[in-house]
Design goal:
- The structure is a single chain.
- The protein has one domain.
- The radius of gyration is 24 Å and the shape is elongated.
- The protein is built from seven helices and four strands.
- The protein is about 40% helix and about 10% strand.
- By secondary structure, it is of the alpha/beta class.
- A four-stranded parallel sheet has the order 2-3-1-4, with no helix packed on it.
């Protein structure tokens, strides 16, 4: 059964059957609509609508871009795609926060076959789609034993000591 773990940063080495899901940046949709962006590097309502509509087409067909109040976000300056992505995330968090759950559902539904472990870079409060996809939470202390397949070391007194196991059983 596949499991997921919430981490702060991307692990250095990923093994076979391990993937990373990061917070959405929507850079693919921004690049798709880059030709429609204004030349002055400021947000424009029509460009925002095009990018948000592309996000809706991919992740949530029920998203209606015309219900967004984009007039509050017109004319915001940005330097590059990353800053525009931050502006877009801020818009989506206030106007349509359920898109982030839809993003996670899409990433989990389209993960590679045979994925054993998903590293999620985000907060624990947004892990609902992992449970609905059938993944279980794995804590960091259990990570090594899960990856190697060896059981955790038991701590405490064993039920049968080595001395008792070596003695033959006595029938009274």
């Amino acid at each position: 059964m596949a499991k997921f773990i919430v981490v702060k940063e991307i692990p250095k080495n990923l093994g076979k059957g391990e993937i990373v899901i990061d917070q959405p940046t929507f850079l693919d949709q921004i690049r798709e609509n880059a030709k429609k962006a204004p030349r002055v590097k400021q947000t424009a309502i029509n460009h925002l609508r095009e990018v948000i509509n592309a996000i809706g087409v991919k992740f949530d067909p029920e998203l209606n871009v015309f219900k967004f109040k984009l007039v509050n976000y017109e004319g915001l300056p940005y330097k590059d795609e990353i800053e525009f992505s931050k502006i877009l995330n801020r818009i989506l968090r206030t106007e349509y926060p359920q898109i982030f759950e839809k993003y996670l559902e899409y990433q989990l539904k389209n993960r590679p076959m045979g994925t054993k472990l998903v590293y999620y870079i985000g907060d624990f409060g947004s892990t609902g789609p992992f449970y609905s996809a059938g993944l279980d939470l794995l804590e960091e202390k259990d990570l090594e034993s899960y990856l190697t397949g060896t059981p955790k070391k038991t701590v405490g007194k064993p039920a049968v000591t080595n001395k008792e196991a070596a003695e033959p059983t006595k029938n009274n």
